[in-house]
């Protein structure tokens, strides 16, 4: 028998329910001297039965996002146009910086207590994915901002 601890890293972009149920069986009766380290994008992507058997640590460091130069409470087409025009002039040195701008918009929406439907939240996911495919940031933000504008005009 081995006396040293063996660690297994479990990392995936997402975990299916079937895979998590299989993992749950192992976690309920783990082999001796075995440690599992599981990485997930969010605790919400892991079954509650698995979370209850794990020690959770969030190692991310929260870095404050740069606020947008856009007042969502007074949003109109002119503001959107000026904002996107200025955005196109900015020199973004990485996809990460562009992603942070999309996240800043989402944070600003939250601060203004604007409710987003599931479909609207999915539009943010798509914008972040499009950002990683090297789409221009203003192209990614335009549909999101127009959606907010139409939401504002709809009672």
TrEMBL record:
Source superkingdom: Bacteria
SUPFAM superfamilies named among the record's database cross-references: P-loop containing nucleoside triphosphate hydrolases
EC number: 2.7.7.7
Entry keywords, A to Z: Nucleotidyltransferase, Transferase
GO molecular function, one term: DNA-directed DNA polymerase activity
NCBIfam families attached to this UniProt entry: PRK08485.1
Protein known as: DNA polymerase III subunit delta
Originating species: Helicobacter pylori
